[in-house]
């Protein structure tokens, strides 16, 4: 594998203690959302901030990430370790559920432990982690951001500074059984909800359609229901939090979006198990042949298309843009970014490792092995890649038009509030109107600046 040219002085340094105590930082960030007001400038070069000048130290590091279901991550690490025997990377795998990953990373940061070096962050965690001084600012001139999709680069920035480098992107797509649609005489995937329901009714009349559920998007009480809410409300023309940072759930568009999720469950369009299925559970459900339409991430494509007997739908599905009320819907902008813990040792090695994982060679290999969405724009137009993965043009459009989840320093509290009220609406514990009213009230103080 290609060796990354080293950055920084080849010497070892101890763990860096950066910024004020977490509690003080959170309060300050919530009141002012300004790092300068919290005792340091955005660059982190003064008053205890971990600036880019602190990217020193070489030696072993750790890579902290959610569980790798592809089995390919270790091969990438083996390639790095073979070329860097004195700077080996050891992977620390966290649980599947994003909420659990975030909590463990926060626990490590609040204890100022140097056990975690490179963090594989969900794109919505950047503001929270940066505002709390848990991340080391990164030098923009050492990373070729111009080759990356602009939407992905934005997710790694906070207050104009770079804190994380996009490694994989993500946007929801509509997986559909092209074989069943063809048998029902349907030549194209649906662009609207009405078309999707009509297609379901036609397929269910077929012998092959018996026992096949219509549609699934995650509505279990996890981060996934926040994503489903962002997409449903965004597809209706609304938002959860507006450009000014204030909640916008008291609108007809927000009501229409939430009603889509509620009615899909209530009317039996979704599986009975929908409120308990997580991302992996949904993947297995689709691969078992029990779903006609599914909102899912790109990673599923390679797994569902395996011809080793693990998928009953291999070769029988395709992907399209998510449908909406009146036309194509809006996907959530997902993905993961790589950041360096403010308290880590060997940060020069960490930066080189980030450059290695986000370089074209690694992203190309990762796409081929896992079907995870790359962040380099050129791979979406590469003839070899589009031949292997016909969905890439669909995915590129989805990422370009995608909506982010609410950007908030108190993101953990924000998403917990969304999860609670949306789940209560979907399960019938609250009416749509009551859920939106309650959520509007909760998000006001949590997003106040």
From TrEMBL:
Pfam families: SBP_bac_8. The keyword Transport applies. CDD domains: PBP2_TMBP. Gene3D superfamilies: Periplasmic binding protein-like II. GO terms for molecular function: maltose binding. InterPro entries: SBP. One of its GO terms (cellular component) is ATP-binding cassette (ABC) transporter complex, substrate-binding subunit-containing. One of its GO terms (biological process) is maltose transport. Keywords: Signal, Transport. It comes from the Bacteria. Belongs to the bacterial solute-binding protein 1 family. PANTHER family: MALTOSE-BINDING PERIPLASMIC PROTEIN (PTHR30061), MALTOSE_MALTODEXTRIN-BINDING PERIPLASMIC PROTEIN (PTHR30061:SF50). This is ABC transporter substrate-binding protein. It comes from Actinomadura montaniterrae.
